[in-house]
Write a structure and sequence with these properties.
globular; 2 domains; 22 helices; about 525 residues; Growth Hormone, Chain: A; mainly alpha
Length: about 525
């Protein structure tokens, strides 16, 4: 381990933040702030049927409502981390929180009519931008307040309790949706107020750094991510043979490559890519990428599966997801202890292995159409993610170059949220295609002509991925009558299509396990003397 890593300490602001701030209040304030971002990753999935029915959204439109948030969060996370370093962590955290909560209120005030879908997507995007400002600044505050030898446990608590708030999302969403789905956005208001009050009480100082902001780099990374995810998201509508699909995907990847080349030449880049020369940091980042292909998308797909194939209500679907979060919350604390005692590698290896096993067993049980038969495997999958998430994130942040924690947090969270956007887009496309094929086969087996069966199957695939009540379409005629008679078989078709998704998540965790093996196993440690020297530098 090089000297600058071992002596990284709490960063440039440590000479100010380690004395005056109240660590407990600072941690609580940042936790309440970021909990809103976690809650909004899950709460919308539960309310999706009600939103679609009231606003008459399309299935792809609803997926964009979910993905607009994730994509803006990913595209601007590095910018948020850099702004936090330049203008001060506390200031950017406060600005991000205010933007997030104002956008939440506007999402809940969406008017009915033709402009509803655009309104909701726009303000979900600004919500994601607020989160991109808030999250890296909040995490940087926690990193700066706690010394390196206690940081693993503090961040395990940070991510573990954030995960618990994520579990509250589906439960709260199911309950609020019974009143009005608009309340799922308004609930962020009291949470934001608590975060702002605790921030003021914690007396967290604001320490800016006089550096230049890399605007061209921010534009390139946002454009590259946006184009690539657009192509993946729209592949179900445009088709994989479409020139537009591949133009977006390849074009986005080329822009990201251009971004990397530009960052290596600019004097004060948005992201200092030399941090990837650290083999451990690279391993942490790749593990996070493959793990997040499963972690956020599982909320949406498990919720839709429960409401379609299991005919569950929104509240029952939320309870179904709760099994996953119980495993996640318990294991995240264990992962933090392993990190503090033995380093990140053992926690990542065990977590990725358990996660891969859990998702594979869960996928195998989806066609049993029983919540009670699936809960042990959902909990096992959640435990695997919980074990690896905090250790991989904390180990990566501890390896910051020059202790630029806001910047490195921006890198790791950009990777995580870009991965979540890719997972949503790819798995959503796969689900629609496989559902269409299986439902088409089912209808043909019941005597529906091939052309009519394929057209109807496509309509049903769009409907069930957007309307998780799983109700048969109304209407008259032989095709409509056959569809109503076949709804039991169609629910099984949808369960079988979801098996592809969950096996895909298991494969992603399996690849993450192979990447965790490449971690050198070195640990970031620091003495008070080393931290003091780093702070002086």
């Amino acid at each position: 381990m090089s000297d600058h890593r071992d002596a990284s300490g709490p960063g440039p602001s440590s000479t100010v933040v380690t004395g005056a701030p109240n660590q407990t209040l600072a941690l609580a304030a940042m936790l309440f702030a970021v909990s809103m971002t976690f809650i909004d990753q899950t709460i919308v999935s539960i309310a999706a049927p009600s939103i679609i029915d009231e606003l008459d959204l399309s299935s792809s439109g609803m997926q964009w409502v979910v993905n607009a948030y994730l994509l803006t969060l990913a595209a601007f996370f590095a910018l948020g981390g850099r702004l936090a370093d330049i203008f001060g962590h506390r200031l950017i955290m406060l600005i991000g929180t205010l933007l997030f909560v104002i956008s939440s209120v506007l999402c809940g005030c969406v008017p009915s009519g033709d402009f509803a879908q655009a309104w909701l997507i726009i303000f979900r995007a600004t919500q994601g931008f607020g989160a991109a400002l808030m999250f890296p600044a909040a995490l940087a505050v926690v990193v700066a307040v706690f010394p390196v030898e206690h940081r693993g446990r503090a961040l395990a608590l940070f991510f573990g309790l954030s995960g618990a708030f994520t579990a509250v999302g589906p439960l709260l969403g199911g309950w609020l949706t019974e009143w009005t789905w608009r309340a799922i956005f308004w609930v962020n208001v009291p949470v934001a107020i608590v975060a702002l009050v605790l921030t003021a009480m914690a007396h967290i100082p604001n320490v800016p750094r006089h550096e230049r902001l890399d605007v061209p780099g921010a534009v390139l990374v946002a454009a590259g991510m946006g184009l690539s995810v657009l192509g993946l998201q729209q592949a179900s509508a445009w088709g994989w043979s479409s020139i537009a699909t591949w133009a977006c995907i390849v074009g986005g990847l080329l822009v990201l490559a251009l971004f990397c080349a530009y960052e290596l030449r600019v004097e004060q880049p948005l992201i200092r890519l030399e941090v990837f020369r650290d083999r451990a940091f690279t391993a942490d980042s790749v593990v996070l990428f493959f793990a997040m292909l499963a972690f956020v998308p599982v909320f949406y797909f498990a919720s839709v599966y429960a409401q379609v194939s299991l005919s569950a209500s929104p509240t029952q679907a939320a309870l179904f997801l709760l099994y996953f979060f119980i495993g996640f919350g318990l294991a995240s604390q264990w992962g933090g202890r392993i990190l503090d005692k033995r380093g990140a590698k053992p926690a990542m290896k065990l977590g990725t292995a358990l996660g891969a096993l859990g998702f594979a067993l869960w996928a195998n049980k989806l066609t049993d159409l029983s919540i009670h038969d699936q809960w042990p495997y959902a909990a096992l999958a959640g435990a695997g993610i919980g074990l690896l998430l905090a250790p991989a994130s904390t180990d990566a942040v501890n390896r910051a170059i020059g202790a630029s924690y806001g910047e490195v947090t921006g890198i790791t969270q950009t990777i995580r949220n870009f991965s979540a956007s890719v997972g949503m887009a790819v798995f959503g496309t796969v689900l629609i295609h496989v559902t269409t094929d299986r439902v088409g086969d089912t209808l043909q087996s019941k005597g529906v002509p091939t052309g009519a069966a394929n057209d109807t199957a496509r309509s049903i695939a769009e409907a069930v991925t957007g309307h998780p009540d799983g109700q048969a379409p109304s209407g008259s005629g032989p095709v409509a009558s056959t569809m109503r008679d076949a709804m039991g078989a169609i629910r099984m078709d949808f369960a079988e299509a979801n098996q592809w998704i969950f096996y895909g998540m298991a494969i992603a965790l399996g690849v993450a396990f192979l990447c965790s093996v490449l971690h050198p196993g070195t640990r970031v440690t620091g003495t008070p003397e080393q931290e003091s020297a780093a702070a002086t530098r």
